[in-house]
Design brief:
The protein has three helices and seven strands. It is an alpha+beta fold and about 150 residues long. It has one domain: 2-Layer Sandwich (Alpha-D-Glucose-1,6-Bisphosphate, Chain A, domain 4), CATH 3.30.530.20. Strands 1-7-6-5-4-3-2 form a seven-stranded antiparallel sheet, with helices on one face. The chain starts with a strand and ends with a helix. About 15% of the residues are buried.
C-alpha cells in the first residue's frame, strides 16, 4: 500500500491550521483547479467526527466522485478522513498538527490502495503516487499561505 508523508511548517497557530484543514469551503477553494466541489453530506463549514462529505472533481481527465468520513478526531492535534466510496480501493488520510516554537508543523500521512490488482500497482508506480503527492503539496502550500495571513 503506497504511503505519502508530507511535513509543512506554518507560521501560524495550531487552531487556525487545524480548522483550515477541515474546512469544506477552504478545501473547495484550494482545489478549484480540479473543479472540486462538495455535492452531499457536510457541504460547508468545519467537518467534525462522524460527518461525511461527497466530492465531485475532475482528476486525470475524468470526473471523479468520492465520499469520505471523519473517523478519528482529537482537536486541535489530529483527525482522519477515510474513503467510504470512490475510485480508490481504499484510502486513509491522517492529519497531524504539532506546535513548535510559535509555529505549527502539519504532517499529512496518506495511505491508499488502488483497485485492479497488478494493474493498480503499476499505475501507482507509473503516476498515481506522484500525482497524489503533488496534489497534497499544492493544497498544503495554499493552506500555509492562508494561515499565515490570518
Amino acid at each position: 500500500m503506497p504511503t505519502i508523508e508530507i511535513k509543512t511548517e506554518i507560521n501560524s497557530d495550531l487552531n487556525t491550521c487545524f480548522d483550515l484543514a477541515r474546512n469544506i469551503d477552504f478545501h473547495q477553494e484550494s482545489l478549484k483547479h480540479s473543479n472540486e466541489k462538495a455535492i452531499a453530506g457536510k457541504m460547508t463549514g468545519l467537518i467534525e467526527l462522524g460527518e461525511w462529505v461527497s466530492w465531485e472533481a475532475k482528476h486525470l481527465g475524468f470526473v471523479q466522485h468520492l465520499t469520505s468520513k471523519i473517523t478519528e478526531f482529537e482537536a486541535p492535534n489530529y483527525f482522519v478522513d477515510e474513503m467510504v466510496f470512490g475510485a480508490f480501493k481504499s484510502f486513509r488520510h491522517e492529519h497531524h498538527f504539532l506546535e513548535s516554537e510559535n509555529r505549527t508543523v502539519m504532517i499529512d500521512v496518506f495511505y491508499f490502495e488502488s483497485p485492479y490488482g497488478v494493474l493498480g500497482e503499476f499505475a501507482n508506480w507509473l503516476f498515481l503516487k506522484k500525482y497524489m503527492t503533488n496534489l497534497l503539496k499544492k493544497r498544503n502550500s495554499l493552506l500555509k499561505q492562508k494561515a499565515e495571513l490570518l
